[in-house]
């Protein structure tokens, strides 16, 4: 093999290693977008606030500035939130400064999906167990802050949470022991 052929072959190999997407049909060309990684951490308080879901003293919680991309079928974890005055949601909803009845189909979205309030008042479609329900975005499930009174002494939310009222759970037919961290898909309605 000539020097020119070896040089061309080496250059082609270097190009494929440097730019794997150039080779159509490779796994690298079809690699999913980068996942949302923690952007920092938050340490729990030095003394504990007594509640089942409160921050634990000395525990370190990851924080996120991002959420996975929204698609026609965005994977998420649905959690239960009480949006009423005195409920586990803490302060009134970010979008409208109000509390909401648990009979209303409302949700809080992780910070990245909440998108600085750009989804406030909009409907999202939540799918689980072969059912679908529309719910109104009224709050942020804060992924950057927590373990303090404004956040009901709870840790920051994970980056993929749809925190839903009891009405949403009921509409999806999820009851009893199934209520908790439940896998769902959602999309903008």
TrEMBL record:
Keywords: Secreted, Signal. Its main location: secreted. InterPro entries: Kiwellin-like (IPR039271), RlpA-like_sf (IPR036908). It comes from the Eukaryota. It is found in: Secreted. The keyword Signal applies. Residues 1-29 form the signal peptide. One of its GO terms (cellular component) is extracellular region. Belongs to the kiwellin family. This is RlpA-like protein double-psi beta-barrel domain-containing protein. It comes from Panicum hallii.
């Amino acid at each position: 093999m000539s020097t020119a052929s070896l040089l061309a072959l080496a250059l082609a190999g270097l190009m494929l290693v440097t730019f794997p997407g150039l080779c159509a049909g490779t796994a690298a060309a079809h690699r999913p977008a980068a996942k949302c990684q923690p952007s920092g951490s938050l340490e729990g308080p030095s003394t504990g606030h007594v509640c089942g879901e409160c921050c634990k003293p000395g525990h370190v919680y990851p924080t996120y500035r991002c959420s996975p991309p929204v698609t026609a079928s965005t994977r998420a974890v649905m959690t239960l939130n009480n949006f009423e005055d005195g409920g586990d949601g803490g302060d009134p909803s970010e979008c409208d400064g109000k509390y909401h009845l648990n009979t209303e189909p409302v949700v809080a979205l992780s910070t990245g999906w909440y998108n600085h309030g750009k989804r406030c008042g909009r409907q999202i479609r939540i799918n689980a167990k072969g059912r679908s329900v529309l719910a109104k975005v009224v709050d942020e499930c804060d992924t950057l802050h927590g373990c303090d009174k404004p956040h009901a002494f709870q840790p920051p939310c994970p980056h993929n949470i749809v925190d839903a009222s009891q009405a949403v759970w009921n509409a999806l037919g999820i009851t009893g022991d199934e209520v908790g961290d439940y896998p769902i898909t959602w999309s903008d309605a």
